[in-house]
Amino acid sequence: MNRIERISAILIQLQSKNCVTAQEIADRFNISMRTVYRDMRSLEESGVPLFGEAGVGYSLVEGYKLPPVQFTIEEATAFLTAEKLVEKFTDRSMKEGYKSAMYKVKAVMRKSDKIYLETINDNIQVVSTCQKGEVKEGQDYLYLICRAIADKHIMLLHYVGLNDVKLTIRNIEPVGVYLQSGRWYIIAFCQLRKDYRNFRIDRIRDLSILETTFKKIHPTLKRFLTEISHKEKLVTVVIRFDNEVLPYLGDQKYYNGFVSEVAGKTHTEMKFLTSSLEGIMRWYIMVADRAQIVSPPELIERTHAFITSLSSRLQNKISC
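The chain above was modelled as a monomer; its predicted structure follows.
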């Protein structure tokens, strides 16, 4: 990307947020802070009405707008792929909102790009193989939760816990939402328990936004997710599977913390995050003749000991 392209991209970035820090710009384009300041001066000298505050960031003067942005083929394809993901992994409120946004995005595209998207639309599919929680009619809560997070509004929650029989009613201060193993969760400060809790959204029976706002500054969602990982003591596991055995893995790979995979001509290497080496070891045993543990060494040793013990028991059975 040359300097002219970068400065144009910075201007678009400034339009995308209320305030953009110099560090955000530097990180996005992998440039020094000195280069960022030089680019911002170039924008000011070209007549772009910028407002900058030390320690806060840059923003455009209210009312300043650029002409409609033309998207590249790569960007258009990314939008279409994201739309497929939204259709599979969000609720109705998010689907309808994204579909409406996509109409606006397509409205400013070139005719050739629109034809391109129509051509490949049926060739991009997201097959939902993760186990998903049952979402009953009317439980379209993601949009409401996001609104409450942005506006810092307390929410009234009717919730049934995993091991609970009775419905509990509680006020919560929402922090963030995340998707894990095909289920959506909300992390919030529960005023009933006086502590932070994560709630499975498919177990919410009713939810509403109250007029009351909360003033407390909560930790970031990223911090909570890091703490959850540490508490669960997640271990990274890498296993190499012969491609012929992949159809037999089914949904089980998701239950064992599947993260990503790298496909080869004869084998596929998969990465997992798990809190139970014992559990993933016993799952691996089912296809052990067509798979190989790459890491960690502890799992290799545990599997070897298990197989040795099993072989010994079988030999004893045969002797008897």
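The radius of gyration is 25 Å.
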